[in-house]
Amino acid sequence: MNKMLNRVPEVTLYFWIIKVMATTVGETGADFLAFTMNFGLAATSYIMSALLAVVLWNQFRLKRYIPMSYWAVVVLVSIVGTLITDRLVDEMGVSLVTTTIAFSVALLGLFAWWYLSEKTLAMHSIKTTKRELFYWGAILLTFALGTAAGDLLAEGTGLGYAISALLFGFVIALIAIAYYRLEMNAVLAFWLAYVLTRPLGASIGDLLSQPVKNGGLGLGTVGTTVSFITTIAILIVYLSMKQQKPA
Q: What 3 state SS string does 144-189 have?
């Protein structure tokens, strides 16, 4: 087995800030390329999947956690996961209810396979190539599931982006309270929060970028995507510099 140092970052406040921003970029970035730039969902999917393959190849080539590489994968997985759901719903006519259920079952199935194979789902045990394959597979499914669940709540039920963001944020806060105050299992809390930060970020992205007539603030996909990518880049540079400092 290919042994490595741990391949993922510590779960800190910075981790969750960048994660939510990455999910927002996944939503607005996919919309920008597919609709604003008129590439279409299919072409955008192929382009982003090719880029994801490149950054994944680089990620697996490394032997330890490198912030720039890791978060590049997360951003592109976010975009590809969004596009998978969007294509199923918009091009193939699959309902948001069906996609939400299907991705939930697929994610649970992957977790079961991962646990039966490795006896752990811990985010800080990603020290072999096999475990990292399970890890990125689970993350791709969380983004696809989060896209479906977020759109189902915000658009399917008519609640809108702002209320949906508040609801997802509230549930994440409950998970945090359960973890810090009620001794909720750390692995369970992590993956629940990871799934829910996807629709949270997507709701925030849609709220900022969508036209006012559609319930958004009208900032557009370009401004929202650029501002969030810039912030992510600044945080990654900071974390990279911090990682290089001697203990």
A: HHHHHHHHHHHHHCCCCHHHHHHHHHHHHHHHHHHHHHHCCCHHHH
